[in-house]
């Protein structure tokens, strides 16, 4: 598997917060969804990916190149899709095209007009009059028009209505058809990931908890419910975190097979959703890889 | 070839795809040499992730139902239909054995059993 983004032991310190010893690989031709609670370090990680922040330690390579010597070459090939409008508000898409286009070697004006048409974006109207969904589309059209191979998106679906979210997901599946593009995007809306993500990277308090294919996640994690008598010091070791109530317990395991061996039919074991995994992992202070 | 997925099913999505492709091949709907949709096209059409269709195809390939040519796609492999038929027949014989044993336990005659079978078969 060819990595497009490669973090090796990356550390970035801030006051009271740090991304620590992060090793992360993003595979070419696939969609990686990046999840984590607010303040877990998602935006910091994305900024490190874009060289908007430099690591204190470790190395970030994109397309196998390092930023110190190949920044321009790397950025040519990345499309960064922001949440909301990052352009001068009074400008229309024609003006923006005139400014952004020459900055890229592979800018394709005809392709841009084609996307603008496909996304139903008016070229002569000020971007500030666009809805949030249209601004997102404009940002995506710009990214695609310089033939970006790697599309990085920070919370692209936040604040969008369900209809537009679906349209966006369809569009992303469209651009993945040739297998040459890679998408990395952070989100809170885990149902978006159920649909298109191939890999899930999960960050908690600046640490990467896992980066697994959706099959590995489904095969490893499970939600377990049962009566309180089943819990003791040994069986609790199977769980990431346990919630107890008077009527029983609910817990997350990261080793479904072993849990099935131990409890057999005595407990109910179901597939854990990404939301379950985020919730229970954030409630636990046990670190696991 | 039609593939209908259920999100509620306990069966993982890639299994569902695999089983439906196998049925299409065994029923003769998908003939030898026929091209399957590309992994990415199928993922897009079914609104699921690429890695899911990829896994389904990998397992179909492992089981000998399809083969892939780099840059060209995946195709229905030559099936040894006699062997598959033989296997199915064996399973049917075993199941019928159970049916007969159960019938004998409650004293059902061969004719009565045949009647039930006839009704069910024609449904």
Task: Explain the overall architecture.
The complex is a heterodimer of chains A (289) and B (123). With 289 residues, chain A is of the alpha/beta class. Chain A has two domains: 3-213, 3-Layer(aba) Sandwich (Rossmann fold); 221-283, Alpha-Beta Plaits, CATH 3.30.70. Helices cover 35% and strands 29% of the residues of chain A. Chain A has eleven helices and 14 strands. Chain A has helices at 42-49, 67-76, 93-100, 109-118, 132-145, 162-175, 190-196, 214-220, 233-236, 256-263, 274-283, and strands spanning 3-14, 17-27, 31-35, 57-62, 65-66, 78-81, 150-154, 182-186, 199-204, 207-213, 222-226, 239-245, 248-253, 268-271. A six-stranded mixed beta sheet of chain A has the order 6-7-8-3-9-10, sandwiched between helices. A four-stranded antiparallel beta sheet of chain A has the order 2-1-4-5. In chain A, helix 4 packs antiparallel against helix 5. In chain A, 38% of the residues are buried. The mean pLDDT of chain A is 90. Chain B has 123 residues and is mainly alpha-helical. Chain B folds into two domains: 13-76, Arc Repressor Mutant, subunit A, CATH 1.10.10; 81-122. In chain B, 59% of the residues lie in helices and 7% in strands. Chain B has helices at 13-26, 39-46, 50-62, 81-105, 110-122, and strands spanning 66-69, 73-76. Chain B has a two-stranded antiparallel ribbon with strand order 1-2. The radius of gyration of chain B is 19 Å and the shape is elongated. Classes of the chains: A alpha/beta (289), B mainly alpha (123).
């Amino acid at each position: 598997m060819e990595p497009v983004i490669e973090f090796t032991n990356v550390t970035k310190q801030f006051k009271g917060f740090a991304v620590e010893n992060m090793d992360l690989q993003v595979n070419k031709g696939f969609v990686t969804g990046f999840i984590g609670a607010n303040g877990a370090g998602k935006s910091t990680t994305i900024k490190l990916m874009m060289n908007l922040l430099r690591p204190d330690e470790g190395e970030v390579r994109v397309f196998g190149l390092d930023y110190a010597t190949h920044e321009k070459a790397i950025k040519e090939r990345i499309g960064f899709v922001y949440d909301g409008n990052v352009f001068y508000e009074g400008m229309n898409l024609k003006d923006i095209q005139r400014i952004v286009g020459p900055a890229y070697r592979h800018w394709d004006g005809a392709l841009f007009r084609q996307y603008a048409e496909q996304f139903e974006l008016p070229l002569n109207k000020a971007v500030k009059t666009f809805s949030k969904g249209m601004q997102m589309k404009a940002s995506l059209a710009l990214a695609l028009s310089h033939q970006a191979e790697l599309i990085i998106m920070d919370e692209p679906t936040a604040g969008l209505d369900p209809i537009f979210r679906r349209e966006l997901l369809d569009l992303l599946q469209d651009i993945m058809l040739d297998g040459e593009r890679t998408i990395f995007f952070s989100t809170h809306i885990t149902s978006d990931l159920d649909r298109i993500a191939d890999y899930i990277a999960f960050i908690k308090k600046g640490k990467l908890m896992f980066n697994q294919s959706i099959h590995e996640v489904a095969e490893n994690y499970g939600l377990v419910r049962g009566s309180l008598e089943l819990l003791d010091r040994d069986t609790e070791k199977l769980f990431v975190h346990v919630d107890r109530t008077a009527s029983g317990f609910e817990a997350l395991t990261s080793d479904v097979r072993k849990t099935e061996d131990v409890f057999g039919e005595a407990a109910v074991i179901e597939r854990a959703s990404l939301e379950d995994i985020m919730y229970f992992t954030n409630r636990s202070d046990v670190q696991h890889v | 070839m039609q593939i209908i997925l259920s999100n509620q099913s306990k069966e993982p999505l890639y299994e569902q795809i695999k089983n439906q492709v196998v049925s299409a091949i065994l029923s003769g709907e998908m003939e030898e040499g026929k091209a399957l949709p590309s992994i990415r096209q199928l993922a897009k059409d079914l609104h699921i992730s690429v890695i899911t269709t990829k896994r389904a195809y990998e397992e179909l390939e492992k089981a000998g139902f399809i083969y892939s040519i780099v840059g060209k796609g995946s195709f229905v492999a030559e099936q040894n239909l006699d062997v598959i038929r033989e296997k199915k027949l064996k399973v049917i014989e075993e199941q019928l054995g159970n049916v007969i044993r159960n019938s004998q336990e409650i004293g059902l005659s061969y004719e009565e059993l045949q009647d039930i079978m006839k009704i069910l078969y024609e449904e």
